[in-house]
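Hey all, sorry for the wall of text incoming. These are the three entities for the joint prediction.
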Amino acid sequence: MLHSSSGSGREISDSTPSVSHGKTTRYYGKSLKQIAGRVGLYAAVALICIYSFFPIYWMILSSLRSPEKLFLDSSLVFWPPDLSSYKSLLQLTNYPANFVNSVMMAMATIAVATTLSSFIAYGATRLRFRGKTTLVASMLFAYMFPPLMLVIPMSALFRIAGLADSLWGLLIAHLAISLPLAVWLLWGFFKSMPFDLEEAAMVDGCSQFGAFIKVVLPLSAPGLITVGIFSFLLSWADYVFALILIMSDDRKTLPVGLASMLGAQDLRWGEILAGATLIALPLFVIFMFCYRYFVAGLTAGALKG
Amino acid sequence: MRQDWRIIGLFIGGVLVLGTIVGGPLLYSIKLSFYTAASFIDPPQWVGLGNYVKVLSEPLFWGSLLNGVTIAISAIVLQVVLGVTIALVLNRQFVGQTVVRALSIVPYFLPTVVACLITQWILDPNYGLLKSVFASFGYGMFDWGGNSTSAKATIVLVSVWIWTPFVVTCVLAGLQSIPAQLYEAARVDGAGVMKQFWHVTLPGLRSVLIVVILLRGIWMFNKFDVIWLLTKGGPLNETETLPTLAYRKAFLEFDLGGGAAVATISFLMLASIILIYLRVFPIDEAKQGR
Amino acid sequence: MDKLSLGAPSSKANVSDIDRRRFLKTTAGAAAGIAGSLSAPYVNAQSGVTLRILNAETTAASQSALRDACNEYESKFGVKIVVDSTPISGGYAKSMAAINAGAPYDIATAGYIAHILQYAMAGHIVPLTDLVKKYSWGKQGTWSYKGENWFYPYDYNLVTVFYRKDLYQEKGLKVPNTWAEFLENCRALTVAKDGNIERGGCVIPLASDSATNWASFGNLFADAPKFYDDKWNVVLDAPGNAGPTGRFLDLYADLYKTMPAGMNTVSYAELMSLFATGKVAHTVYSGRVVEALEARNPDLANKYGIFASPDSAGKQNALSFAFDGFILYKTKQTEAAFKFLQWFIDAHYIRWLHSAWMNFQPARLDIYEDPRWKNHPMIQKHWATMEQMKSFIDEDSKTVLNSIDMTGPSFDLRPCKVFDANIMPEMLQNRVLKNMSSSDCVKAAADRIRKIG
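and here's what came out:
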């Protein structure tokens, strides 16, 4: 499925020259109907853009309004930006600490999930054993679990294991939701990778393990990046597990810290929207650079629940 | 090929870790559902099927099930219709196609919390943007949290906004796999745009759509965060679903056994659906379907 | 060496049994402590101890006041204190989650008797009778259970009705003495345009949460229907009680028509912000509204007034209310927590009260005479309001003080369950969201109260 996405990417770049190519010839032959179709298409495209991005724009815009204007102003311009919501967010709330926690969780989830899933997925495609299909099917199963089915027993088990209210416990939870997905993704990737390459390396005297490290993994970089990105997303966006497993202020992650601002005695929409923008910001940056891996993961049935 | 013991070792290790952190809680949850445990400190008491009997005899359970199904089905229908429409538009050639395609999937990657906060901000009955927009057209703002229909509709619309890009992306990939010759043949036969859609596009997307519908349906049914963040199950339990009910029981009413029972029941229902799904679409073919 | 008494010389005089017992225990602990921290500059009994506080006062000022106090305590006595915060609406769930996980907090701020009583009955908290007995308190301020006081209040949260004096003047209205007059005033001040309520007559919350339990039933209490008889039979739907309760629901339904949209999601914060932004002419809340006005809309801070909720006949008025106070959980460190609380009360109580100068309406009567507290410029500015608020808690006050969790012949778990199950808020919802008849709503509520026992 990675191929299909790079295929679509290719097609996009192919399409641009073809449009400019045919321009002169096409314009003459264009009937009124075709022009109307063209206008309709661009109108639909504009509508899709507004639908997809306007709410996000509105969040960013509102976070940049001064507190006096926030509740009254509904203009679409944010200039001049007012950073007071951001300032008070950083000063008055635990946001910086929450940010650090979220980053730690995400990094650890990426590292462990990518490593473990590559072991499992590689074994599942290359080793000969009974019940392979069952194993892979159970991955599909596992990432369809109701989250509450995992978190209720986890809250009890972590208590017994001394992991209550601990980021280690939360890491385990994040792994439990990201590992099945990661294995599923990489399984598809390794399966479509020709066996000849490793066999050639092994003929040259490499062990299977050596071939895995030296040949398979480097060639799987796109798949690993996709897995990394989706592990990051699952951990970064998680609300349910952090809500239930974490108690202390200094261990909260961003989504929970942010949501708990809503129930407070003072209404802090400015700070809430500033915080929401700051959660989304790293995602936008990664998204811009890794767009094609996002698409690859999505079409692989890869999914944040 | 000779099997390398290191590969075997790492594989088994990985499977064990995965099995422990996913399978362990799963089994423990089933075990908990047979006990009453108000807290984690007191020893739990065996009650057999007591929790199940109690849960299944509550009207709230059945109401929640119905709410969950209603919300999931409405969200799926809208996501698919909207997703296919958007995909068909984005599949045409136009200037800036790449950028627009990228823009259209941004909502999917937004953390749910952020999406829900944006919604609440825009829908705020007194300060929200929508209120200003309505007022400028001379209409009154509706009270979205005030009745069953509008509260459910809000949850559905937010879910549709977040998760439609998944449908769009899968359908776009699916569209690529439909051979151009089919369209040409249809055109030769004199089929118009609508006919081409019904007789070529939709059949070509069949396998993709079935997978998408099942996956999204299951996730919608499991959704906790959107509902909890938007309505907390209100008003008057009209948006209570099995996940929020399980949460309420386990963590607000301190009835771990009851919560585990609700979660287990919804898991069993889903598991049977997934099993049917795997029977109809064996896993290898399902993957090729994309 | 017993640092706890340093700040409180006055308390030495009446060391009670409990104090003495505690003293003995800590002496034993002290020996270990000294051995463990020879290099410590202070000889103290508690080094190495970390106390955990759950704080539901989440405004920036209150959080920093508490943090400062904790830092000072740590530097003086070497006791580390970790403060976790929770929105007030989630305080009970969080406390219970910590208890159920076997790691209760040591100290918490708690608002509702419903919850404090549940902790006390389940043996989760320790009595603070000796601390409480040192002072005299306002009306109902020292409620006890099994002869002990279970929390150390710092404020009353009386739910008064805030109204706009300027608007009253404009329309020639007067402070209402009956339900009908209140409704008339709300109607007169409602401004609707294009189907939107531009300015609501009032806001009285409706959501299934503690805010509604706390703030929405002043008018009901003024008419004083009984929820239970003397033997704890539910009589809310019996003749004599069903009538006034049903009429109260009709009143609410009429008032509801003057409220802005979104009552079902209105909670603590919105009750204030709607009034402070001029979106409603009346709101129900405690003194924090004044703080919100000063912070957001200083102009309005000179134009508000308060009154107690009237009854239907103009005979008496009532306030729904709650306290806020400190509770001590039963932990291995209760002694250390007790010392901290004692120190905090002696050294920081007033600074704490000042962190929410109007909302923290003192429950301890001596504070009203204390110049350190009284001289706060904002309290001075709003002294008239503060005096009015105090008049409600004087022993000879005729204003009824009541709360959902305190109804019934004595303090008991039963009304607490009514509170936690949101039965009364849902009675309102049945009336205005489902359009059930008032008598059916009352009947349904009474049945639910019977059912939860």
